[in-house]
Design goal:
Order of helices and strands: HEHEHHEHEEH
Oligomer: single chain
Helix content: 55-70%
Number of strands: 5
Number of domains: 1
Strand order of the largest sheet: 2-1-3-4-5
Strand content: 5-15%
CATH superfamily: Glucose-6-phosphate isomerase like protein, domain 1
Shape: globular
CATH class: Alpha Beta
Radius of gyration: 17 Å
CATH architecture: 3-Layer(aba) Sandwich
Largest sheet: 5 strands, parallel
């Protein structure tokens, strides 16, 4: 069994190195992503989030940061996670198949001018590909937080932020960090606007 101190050091060192690489190579993309989120909100649109597994948890976490607050007092912002309604998810999966659990909600709740943010480490989930296609049909902009080269989803969205790692855990950690940076930028801009 490996020494626990070595495991801790390796994990945190890897995360630190990846954070630095993302800061060095993706800052412009993250700023553009924040501008898309802010522009959607200021134009009266809403932000929708989806993902599977740990990425579903990130989606709901970030939607909450907009509706409730991130780091400062400001008005509530329109955001929702398409991952949270168990009755809807299980009925949709049962009646139409798991691949439709997000696209069906987008068809019901989405409007042109909204922004769909997809979280995926592989970029290969059929339900996320279907969600991106549904969004495109309605006129909803799409952005994806990805890793492992971006997968098929990277080519199906308006903006792909691909974290340079093949590690699912590191990708999810950085996706959440990027999401928090965007929240911070949006919070500051909304506070000035208010």
């Amino acid at each position: 069994m490996r020494d626990s101190g070595a495991v801790i050091g390796e994990h945190l060192s890897d995360l630190s190195a990846l954070s630095s690489a993302v800061s060095d190579t993706m800052s412009g993309q993250i700023e553009e992503f924040a501008d898309r989120v802010l522009g959607t909100i200021l134009a009266g649109g809403k932000i929708m989030f989806c993902g599977n597994g740990g990425s579903a948890a990130d989606a709901q976490h970030l939607a909450t940061e907009y509706v409730v607050r991130f780091a400062r007092e400001r008005r509530a912002l329109a955001a929702l996670a398409l991952t949270t309604d168990t009755s809807l998810l299980t009925a949709g999966a049962n009646d139409y198949g798991f691949d439709t659990i997000f696209s069906r909600q987008i068809e019901a709740l989405g409007q042109a001018g909204d922004l769909l943010i997809l979280h995926s480490t592989s970029g290969e989930s059929d339900n996320l590909l279907a969600a991106a296609a549904a969004a495109r049909r309605i006129g909803i902009s799409t952005a994806a937080l990805l890793a492992k080269g971006g997968g098929r989803l990277g080519a199906c969205v308006d903006m792909a932020l691909v974290v340079p790692t093949d590690s699912t855990a590191r990708a999810q950690e950085l996706h959440l960090a990027i999401g928090h940076v965007v929240c911070e930028l949006v919070d500051a801009a909304i506070a000035r606007d208010d």
